[in-house]
Amino acid sequence: MSAGVRLLGPDDPAPCIVLNPAGASSFLLVADHAGCAVPSGLGDLGLEAQDFARHIAVDIGVAALGEALSARLDATLLRQHYSRLVIDCNRDPARADAIPPVSDGTPIPANASLSPEGRAARIEEIHAPYHAAIAAALGQRDALGRRTIVVALHSFTPRMNGFDRPWHAGLLYDRGDTRFAHAVLARLSAAIDAPVGDNEPYAMDGIDYTVPHHCYPADRLYAELEIRQDLLGSPEGVAQWAERLAGVLTAAAGDLV
Ligand SMILES: [Zn+2]
After folding, report:
1. Nearest CA to 80 among 138, 28, 31?
2. Cis omega (within 30 of 0) on the bond before 201?
3. Is the CB of residue 152 less than 8 Å from the CB of residue 222?
């Protein structure tokens, strides 16, 4: 703990919310950006309340999608509770932009003036315990000899830098064992009558943290999914995507057996 700085108060939950910890599925669902909370000690980061409903603060729709997928697949979901504007858990914490001073053109006042102690507290109380929880879950499964496929859930804004993104979903992958990601890409492309991004709208690279950190060293199967946010904007949309993805993920896992 950093001397004198304590970020999470007694009413702030731990950063990693675990849903269905006894889930029997091979899939371990992780959602780095599915929360929009701010620790009570940080106030509003200098932002308006409505900014926390924007894509800069949270992957819109992913908490609901993760819960629905967890139920359909009987899979454990590890969901990060705090906004990516507090700290981005899909970034190496050593990167300056893990705590962005500006996001999609919006200045984040509390981040621009952050002290080294304040930065260390966000890493130690949110980023580190969230990733420790993922590592512990993986270690437990390994010890039991369980098959594990890591599925990282994200969503993307439909319009960025003046460009309307045509993809309804995207598969992100880079190094490590990419067989599952490729199987999901093929299955999802066949399942929907719309473009599925192949490392679009983003390519996975060294800027990502969760999949590279937890999957590459052990050669774990993984897929990082991006779903367009407007498609997750209603309970019906979430339910439709959960049903579709449950089928696609299950079929893709079967392709590898
Ligand atoms: Zn995300």
Report:
1. 31
2. yes
3. yes
Structure-derived torsion over alpha carbons of residues 98, 100, 101, 104, reported in degrees to the nearest 10:
160
**CB-based contact 15:81 (threshold 8 Å):** yes
Residue ranges per structural domain of the chain? 16-255
Separation CA 100–CA 13 (nearest Å): 22
Q: How far is the CA of 216 from the centre of ligand 1 (A)?
A: 19
CATH annotation of 16-255: 3.40.630.40
Q: How confident is the model at residue 103 (pLDDT cuts 50, 70, 90)?
A: very high
CA of 201 to the centre of ligand 1 (A): 12
Distance 3 CA to ligand 1 centre (A): 31
Cα of 34 from ligand 1 centre, angstroms: 7
Q: What is the pLDDT of residues 122-147, one digit of tens each?
A: 999 999 999 999 999 999 999 999 99
DSSP per-residue string spanning 94-145 = TSGGGS-SEETTEE-HHHHT--HHHHHHHIIIIIHHHHHHHHHHHHHHHHTT
| Residue 56 CA, ligand 1 centroid: distance in Å | 9
**What is d(CA 34, CA 64) in angstroms, rounded to the nearest whole number?**
9
Query: What is the dihedral angle through the alpha carbons of 91, 213, 196, 250, rounded to the nearest 10 degrees?
Result: -140
Look-up of token digits 């990282």: 152
Strand partners of residue 153: 225
